[in-house]
Amino acid sequence: METGFKYRLQCLPRTLTLYCEFGSELMPRNSRQQTVKERSAATKVINCMRGAMNTISPVAWLVTLPQLISRICHKQIDVSEVLQVVLLRCYQSYPQQVMWSIACLSRSSNLQRREIAQQLTVQMRRCSDAKGSQVLDNFGRLVDAIIHLTNYNPKQCPKYLSARHDFAKLYSLLPTCGVMVPVQEAFAVPLPPARLQPVAKPLGPGNSTAVTAAVPVINEDPGLVTIVSMRDAILVMTSLQKPKKLTFVGSDGMEYPFLAKPKDDLRKDYRLMDFVGVANSLFAAAVAFRRRSLKLRTYSVIVLAEDCGILQWVNNLVSFKSCCEEVYANEGMYRRRDFAMAVKKMYDSTPSKRQWLEKVMQTLPPRMHKWWLTRFSEPATWLAARLSFTRTNAAWCMLGHMLGLGDRHCENIMVDTASGDTVHVDFGCLFDRGLILEVPEMVPFRLTQNMVDAFGISGVEGSYRKCAEITLQVLRQHRSTLMTSAETFLYDPLVDWMNARRGGHVAQQEATAEYENPSAKDALATIDGRLSGTLLGVSSAPSLPLSVEGHVQRLVAEATDKDNLARMYIWWMPWF
Known about the structure:
Blueprint: H1 8-25, H2 36-55, H3 58-61, H4 65-70, H5 77-93, H6 95-101, H7 111-126, H8 130-151, E1 160-162, H9 163-166, H10 168-173, H11 184-187, E2 227-230, E3 233-236, E4 244-250, E5 255-262, H12 267-284, H13 287-291, E6 301-305, E7 308-312, E8 317-319, H14 320-330, H15 336-349, H16 353-363, H17 368-375, H18 379-402, E9 413-416, E10 422-424, H19 449-454, H20 463-477, H21 479-486, H22 488-491, H23 495-502, H24 518-532, E11 535-536, E12 541-542, H25 548-560, H26 562-566
Antiparallel strand pairs: 1-3, 2-4, 3-4, 4-5, 5-7, 6-7, 8-9, 9-10, 11-12
Helix pairs in contact: 1-21, 2-5, 5-6, 5-7, 12-21, 18-20, 20-25
């Protein structure tokens, strides 16, 4: 790390994992239980980590932010203090990125997390100048105001709300808040050359968690875009939870739309976006991916509390369902209400679900290729967009199956009408949760007739299969790196896991130190098995290790099997 950043994704997260595991196993023992050799090893490890905090650039530590936050409540105090100091080191150089990343800590239901958040805030003030302290105060008020907007539930449910009148406190705070616009690009800090990397300031004497007040906060990005205003019109969506689309105006004059989601735990979305970001970095190092210019689209997810947050709005997206409905409607084959009633009646009256699905598919034969011809009329643009859709779809299918991503109905898969990229949204159904639904999911990912039709004349046998095999090969090669990234789920238990563990009898406020959740450990074991090729299919049936080609073939066969598709929930719409 002192000479370059080439292996930062492999080195730093793994180092933190080993240090935390070492702290859990050996450091809790008292001096009488430890041998001389163990005490010597513990001292060396602690000194090594403290030295690394001072010599490794904060920009390198930024890749470990999700891991630092998830393990901040480590049961060994020495380990927890080291993690806190690393966070403070990152804050010294990148205060805005760190503030947004730890926004949910101070509002956590976990008592110890809230206490640590208060300690971190005090330390941040000590290492900040007057301007930095003011931004820190403004940030706290800004987050509270955004949470109020997110959870606001008007009685009459108008289509638009006024920021100026309905959220005057938030509107008046923005011009002077000095807080960064939390878009994906702002968190992707560019890496400096190895010889120019900044060196962190030494620790304060006599206190391993102290940061000297004389060290000012230095933001290394002079072009940082801050929030200066917001558009008055706030769109209220028609869905059940009434999410709201708000638009911030940046100091560069550009508009940055976000979706404010209430009553939804976005920590899964945040962790998955981090996981995909790590995968993208690994993909970028693979020649086959660079040759195809293949990269999965990500967007920022900001968790403000355990039940709400904001997501970066991605323009030019339409749902796959809308694409299918458009092309069928243009041919006079589809009317939404009439078709839905006919399908439901046929479903209830047909004993064989496979026969039912075949009848529906005869009524609506695959037509998605015509949508691409209509949307991209120029031949070169059409070919590029269709290839982009096929390749990103293949990569998402493999990555989603590794994580047990379910609920891939037509409205959770989006298509970029400018580039053709596949973009996935709504990651609440992770870690094979689809298997425990009232109607269990029987396919590993969505590979229905119109999906295959959009791939071109070769279907799944062309670019799709090749990209799926390349993706799976890279995932297997970097199995340890991906598992280290996935371990953040283990030590930051999600709300539904926590409720399951406590059975509803113990309040979340009583939780203190980090807890290794059994459900999370099982999920990680399944991910590890799939990455090694020994757990196959939706049910993760044990098997001898399969080759990459055999693994992909097994998954494609499951995803396209009509018996499996017919057993899916009817409004998953397996006919599209």
